[in-house]
Amino acid sequence: MTRIGIVTASTRPSRIGHHVAAWVLDLAPEGVEPVGIDLRELALPFLDEPELPSDGRYAHEHTRRWSETVTGLDAVVLVMPEYNRGYNAALKNAIDYLYAEWDGMPVACVGYGWSGARYARSALRQTLERVGMVVVDGAALHLEKTLDPDGTVRADDAAVADVRSMFAALVAAATARERVAAHR
């Protein structure tokens, strides 16, 4: 069983990301155990660890909980909005809290917004690669095309196929990572 975290990145009171995350979670195939993670519920303060994340010495319980959650996953899907052509601060903050936990972790983004979060996904990719994550193709939902402003997903066949392909790529990357770890 491959444990894949489905992270709702938006923390806004009027967000719709949790609807998108539920849609992604529902498309998880057999053999995948989807784990819902909501950054609003996680409620990480802005990075407040006194040591560098790369040191792995966490002073705060909220950081240790976040580390344990991520360590228990085989891969991650980041369900993220696009704000002003960038990704949201809560997501950047959650990434910045950790370092070693991300190394080799397969990740994909399901972006949503007027342009399917094209710019945000592009910007985020640089950060994900910097922390050592293995980025696989995700999916995009476009407001008023495949996503209503109230969060109702009206995905077309292409978007569903993208999510299914994303899950297959994440499972393959997680399996490859596991094989490498077993040979160390």
Automatic annotation (TrEMBL):
Pfam family membership, one: FMN_red
Transmembrane region(s): none
Gene3D superfamilies (alphabetical): 3.40.50.360
Boundaries of every NADPH-dependent FMN reductase-like domain copy: 3-145
Superkingdom of the source species: Bacteria
Stored SUPFAM superfamilies: Flavoproteins
PANTHER family: CHROMATE REDUCTASE, NAD(P)H-DEPENDENT FMN REDUCTASE LOT6
Name assigned to this protein: NAD(P)H-dependent oxidoreductase
Organism listed in the record: Fodinibacter luteus
Taxonomic placement: Bacteria, Bacillati, Actinomycetota, Actinomycetes, Micrococcales
